[in-house]
């Protein structure tokens, strides 16, 4: 009689209960309901099954549990009723909040916050070595202050009575009375330092590549936008590339650059960058500095907006806010209202273009409006001139020569250390001269 071999079963999907909190003194870009809906999508992307949710509005967060004690008890009962094993808050919790909440919600319930979910999604989607380094750094910096609650063995003493030999992460003999927590924290500090050094090498490598691109005089365009706005689809359409595309949040983390030809015969380099989201964790912004420099060093930004999304305006504001935070707010930008093929009213697309500055309606999937977009890119890069006054030290000889070659000079004034130039520059060069602006100027054709 043959013996039946049982096939391995997949691990059970964790059941998540969501908690949305609106603090009166800390208003978000999205409404409480819409932000909670976005958190639900994030959890599903991370592989969690959302089984319930609750909301609370507060004047100020509770110092221990963030939400009130009555709400904590309500959530505990709802978690039992829905058989949830994860509670996810739509905000970033302090280590104290997480620890207190887990104690009150039960031993078998993990408490996570929005930042932890986003970091987990990034970890799943990072494919290149650079992406993995950046995510690992962000995760360690997030976990470091939470070691007291995240590691089960940390209360163990290693030492006493003349010391004890042990090993964690390569650490050997420990001092008397030293806790496992102190050893683990020191190991993580070492790893963070090593990761930062590796990423500085990545940053230097990217900088050398950008210098080479500048010498070719080929303009660089960065595609930016809220996550899942269609940046990779647009890059594929324009360059006939095969960048990974999926209808989910943060499908693309690693920047991809392709050559694109404009209608007038000019060539540009177009880079697909990581998508933004409201409440983007500060750890990620810091860790992805090398990648985000692909945006800050671009000659032009194409800001993709999902025209079908009910919160398109809020997403547009969120991206603009993030661009300002990384010092990319003054780079020339064209807004591309994407996915117009999914609008029920064809005339809605043209109406929407009046609600955004420098907007063009397109469908990256179907190709509608793409020629208009390419013509606008060409006009912005090669036909639009911006009046500026810059002071260039003599050691910036390359920029001085470039202004003479590509710009229109009205006046020059030499000093002992440099030269002040007043005139017009092509829009594609503005970002390069921005650190040397004498004063802000308005953009005119």
TrEMBL record:
Q: Name the cofactor(s) required for activity, per the record.
A: Mg(2+)
Q: Which CDD domains match?
A: HflX
Q: Which gene encodes it?
A: hflX
Coiled-coil ranges per UniProt: 185-212
An example Gene Ontology CC term for this record: cytoplasm
Organism for this UniProt entry = Longilinea arvoryzae
Instruction: Indicate which residues the UniProt annotation says bind GTP.
Output: 225-232, 250-254, 272-275, 338-341, 363-365
Q: Name one GO molecular function term.
A: metal ion binding
- Protein name per the record: GTPase HflX
Quaternary structure (record): Monomer. Associates with the 50S ribosomal subunit.
Q: Which UniProt keywords apply?
A: Coiled coil, Cytoplasm, GTP-binding, Magnesium, Metal-binding, Nucleotide-binding
Localization of this protein: Cytoplasm
The job of this chain, per UniProt, is described as: GTPase that associates with the 50S ribosomal subunit and may have a role during protein synthesis or ribosome biogenesis.
Q: Which family does it belong to?
A: Belongs to the TRAFAC class OBG-HflX-like GTPase superfamily. HflX GTPase family.
**By its UniProt entry, which NCBIfam families does this protein fall under?**
GTP_HflX, small_GTP
